[in-house]
Amino acid sequence: MAKYRKLEPRFWIDEKIRLLSADGKLLALYCLTGPQTNRFGLFAFSKGAAMEHTGMTNKEFDTAWREVTDSLSWEWDDSLSVLYIPKFLKCNPPTNDKHWSGMVSDLDEIPRTALLEHLHDNIIAYGIPYAIPYAIGTRYPMPYQEQEQEQEQEQQQ
Q: What is the biggest distance separating any 2 CA atoms in the chain, rounded to whole angstroms?
């Protein structure tokens, strides 16, 4: 299945983005839409792959990286190479319970970083309906009603 990411058209007029250098804008855009990004905005991130994909030198990348993570308040777990974009989920919430289930499967690809707690806190803060079972301690959301009805019908037969 193809991956796609939504990008707010307001990205380009956001006051924090407008203050970034050209390399900073490119790197921010790459982090939001690149092949490493998942549906939570919390993902294993390879700086080497990012440099290769954006065509930046090591020095250009390091400067842009500091600029982007500082200006946009993105969080980085250096020991596990995990990037967290705190407002990603707010701008890209799940659209239904099946979508949420797919999103939860993305968590299996993330090293067990302390940034998961920040994600958990934001799920609660944003009040994402499909995420509530996860936020209150269960790993997966409740099955949707159609599945329950099908299971009941099969049991009756």
A: 67
Using CA atoms, how far apart are residues 2 and 24, in angstroms rounded to an integer?
A: 27
Helix axes 22-33, 58-71, angle to 10 degrees: 70
CB 86 within 8 A of CB 41: yes
Amino acid identity, residue 110? I
Burial readout 71-105 (b: 16 or more C-beta within 10 A, e: otherwise): ebebbbbeeebbbbbbebbebbbbeebeebeebbe
From the list 97, 105, 74, the residue with the least C-alpha distance to 144 is 97
Mean pLDDT (the chain) is 84
Q: What are phi and psi for residue 76, nearest 5 degrees?
A: -130, 125
The string of pLDDT tens digits covering residues 48-100 is 999 999 999 999 999 999 999 999 999 999 999 999 999 998 888 888 888 88
CA distance 131 to 24: 32
Spatial separation of the C-alpha atoms in residues 71 and 65, rounded to whole Å: 10
